[in-house]
Design brief:
α4 packs across α5, α4 packs parallel to α6 and α10 crosses α13. It is flat and about 80 Å long. 20% of the residues are buried. The chain starts with 17 loop residues before the first helix and ends with a helix. It is built from 13 helices and no strands. The protein has 289 residues and is mainly α. Helix content is 64%, strand content 0%.
């Protein structure tokens, strides 16, 4: 199969334009199961690159959805999405339509694998040596590791005294340097028969038992749609009715009828009537949208 990962690279803009990229990605219609299967068959059996492009473009929204889950690492969102897109392209390249699963179910671990590698690589650069003393310790230990195995207690104390750091820092840095990182996924140089020659990666042992990603994204879109209808309907209420609905139904610390009665100097029964009328107006307003 032709390697189209580079010729069809999807560049994600950085900065403020990331929002317009997301809007464009979400504007691309999702494929039905029949459309997806037809395109996948054209790619798998006929090496149709236009079919590959359609499959990739229609799944960009899923990459964005997954990438958002890694925002807590302090890495640029555009970079996370870009790496996820690479995983998506690898998944599309390897997808077999005859297996009987949807592409998104197959692609999710490829997308996550690329993002994992990117996060780990960048996180490791920060965590191995974050201070001047740690960087000095790192390079000195690295030089000594060429001729030493694990340090003895005396050697640890000597290094700590020489470099002006604690023995704890020496042991921690030694542990970091002694551990080796295993790639989450097979490299691009590994072919499809790698598993038969004894080459395995952690990704091959993972089974995605989470809820269907397609349904999850569709559910989030539906929630956004419903919330939009609710706020639109709320704007048709008078200010007092809006406050009653928010206080009774939307706020975390919900108010009682008596709380609102005291606030507006009316009876609790009158508050209940206003609440009922407001809810009826909201239901009518939402149903009309």
């Amino acid at each position: 199969m032709t390697n189209y990962s580079h010729s069809m690279a999807l560049t994600v803009p950085s900065g403020g334009s990331i929002e317009s990229y997301m809007q464009s990605a979400y504007s691309i219609p999702m494929l039905s199961a029949e459309q997806e299967h037809e395109l996948a068959c054209r790619l798998y059996h006929e090496d149709d690159l236009s079919a590959a492009q359609d499959l990739i473009m229609s799944h960009l929204r899923f990459v964005i959805h997954i990438a958002k889950g890694y925002s807590g690492y302090g890495l640029p969102q555009a970079d996370l999405i870009q790496e996820g897109n690479v995983g998506l392209m690898k998944a599309v390249k390897r997808f077999n339509p005859d297996v009987g699963v949807r592409l998104v179910s197959f692609a999710v671990h490829w997308i996550k694998a690329e993002i994992h590698e990117f996060v780990l690589k960048n996180w490791r650069i920060v965590k191995v040596a974050t201070t001047k003393a740690q960087r000095k310790l790192f390079f000195n230990l690295r030089k000594n590791k060429k001729r030493l195995g694990w340090f003895s207690n005396d050697e640890v104390n000597t290094v700590a005294d020489t470099l002006g750091v604690s023995t704890k820092d020496v042991l921690e840095m030694e542990s970091r340097m002694s551990s080796s990182d295993q790639a989450f996924d097979l490299t691009d140089s590994d072919d499809d028969s790698a598993s038969y020659s004894g080459n395995f990666s952690p990704a091959q042992f993972l089974e995605d038992k989470s809820s269907d990603l397609s349904a999850e994204v569709e559910g989030n879109n539906w929630d956004d749609h419903v919330n939009g209808q609710l706020f639109s309907a709320m704007s048709s209420l008078d200010e007092r009715s809006q406050d009653i609905i928010r206080s009774r139904w939307l706020n975390d610390d919900k108010a009682t009828l008596q709380d609102l009665a005291d606030k507006y100097q009316i009876s609790a029964e009158r508050v209940r009537q206003l609440e009922k009328n407001a809810l009826n107006k909201l239901k009518l307003g939402i149903s009309e949208h």
